[in-house]
Amino acid sequence: MTGIYLSYWQFWLLLALALWAFIERLLLPSIRWFFRRKLNRLIETVNLKLDIEIRPFQRTKRKILIDRLVFDAEVMLAVDEYAKQKDMPREVVMKKIKRYANEIVPAFNAYMYYRLGYWLAEKLARWFYRVKVNIVDKHQLAKINSNATVVFVMNHRSNMDYILVSFLASRRTTLSYAVGEWAKIWPLQSLLRSMGAFFVRRNSRNKLYRKVLERYITMATREGVCQAMFPEGGLSKDGKLKPPKLGLLNYMLKNFNYQTDRDIVFIPVGINYDRTLEDRTLLRALDPDSGRKSAWFALKKTVTFWAKNFRLMWQNKWKNFGFAAVNFGLPLSAKAYSIENEVIFKTLSADERFVQIEAFSKGLFSAVENVIPMLPMSLICRIFLEHGEKAMTALEVKGLAFEKLKQCREKGVPDLLKSGAWDDAIQVTMEMLLLRHLLIEKQKLITIVPENINVIEYYANACHFYFEKK
Predict the structure, then answer these.
(1) What is the pLDDT along the chain (470 residues), one digit of tens a residue?
(2) What is the sign, positive or negative, of the torsion defined by CA atoms of 23, 26, 27, 29?
(3) Global pTM?
(4) How far is CA 303 from the centre of its chain?
(5) 146: closest CA among 173, 176, 117?
């Protein structure tokens, strides 16, 4: 009787290969099938609750989207032109294109968005703030065609904007954000990608990169992906609204033809906070003498900030950061604008299109400005700013606050607080300002701490346009 004899290393090698074959051919496909089935069920359940369903584009595999972007006809033309201009092999340019596409295209995961993202956004928003939300006209929002591409356009006060609006809008739709390079750190980058965010180099002058970005935004807009954009292009450093940048808006409207394409509906959103977490950091960026701080300095300041807050929590002395208010305005339709002005953006020359987009953006950003809510912090800081170094009692401040609030209401300024809530809110705001050493109280007279007047100005600027209206 003969047999086959194996050495130990041959036996273990065959066993490892058999185990690998079992995992690759049986176990992994079963795991993928299980999670894919679970994900599809979640999407079906979520779509039943949403006003605007998760689009097929968002459910497409990321690799397929990257390939679509890389081999897009306009991108290919840009590749040929760039290769000729730079006298560079086409294969080298294609590598650049693939790198840009990999950088931009998100990896949307409905499970991450609605199970982890929504839960985390809600907990953080309600932990930090007393959240107030208002819709100017619910009937107008309800009338939006479910097939339209919806774009939320908002002012940019804080990085909390992403969390706050995602949480508030998640019951109606799934948002895709343009995120700056600040978020390209692990593991934040992977998390944001899975939440549908796409990355943008804000100040890039690279025409090749801009073409890839343009084509991605055009693709997503045509496929009906709901998006959120900050026309200011970055956080407001002094609290005032920054002039809008037209790049992303141009990409969305450049090839728009209201006669054949789905409508693009822009919803203005106004955001305001009683306290933004980054206020002093943003103000420091305005000071030319402050110099560029190291990453270690930023980390140390962040750790100190949170250590102080956790200590207050441990001592049961911690209070949240006041109100965070979000106000959704009346929708503006690109189709309605095109019909009213008798324009087809796709057929316009670059100069003509820019004129039309600039006109449209002015109306859109004006609508954003008009829905930014008034909050106690903006009101109180405005009063102290107007009275300079004058010392006032708490009662005098309250009287001036209610007088100015009445004037604002007469001008139609959005006010998300109930009338009875303002008395307590003003008192709490004064305490917050004293606690942060922005105000000082001596012998029951309150005045600004001179070295912190820039912080007072920052919060007063949040609604400066309301006070300047006649």
Answers:
(1) 455 666 777 777 877 877 877 776 766 666 655 555 654 564 556 555 656 677 888 888 889 999 999 999 999 999 999 999 989 999 999 999 999 999 899 888 777 777 777 788 888 888 889 999 888 888 888 888 888 999 999 999 988 888 888 777 766 777 787 777 665 665 556 667 777 778 788 777 889 999 999 999 999 999 999 888 888 888 888 999 988 888 899 999 999 999 999 999 999 999 999 999 888 888 888 876 666 666 566 667 667 777 777 777 777 766 788 999 999 999 999 999 999 999 999 999 989 999 999 999 999 999 999 999 999 999 999 999 998 888 999 999 999 999 999 888 888 888 888 777 898 999 999 999 998 899 999 988 999 999 999 999 999 999 887 777 65
(2) positive
(3) 0.85
(4) 24
(5) 173
Q: Rounded to 10 degrees, what is the CA torsion of 176, 180, 183, 188?
A: 10
- In the numeric block, the tokens 């000071």 are attached to 287
Integer Cα distance of 424 and 416 in angstroms: 15
Class for the domain spanning 376-468: mainly alpha
CATH of 50-276+323-371, one of 3.30.1330, 3.40.1130, 3.40.50, 3.30.450: 3.40.1130
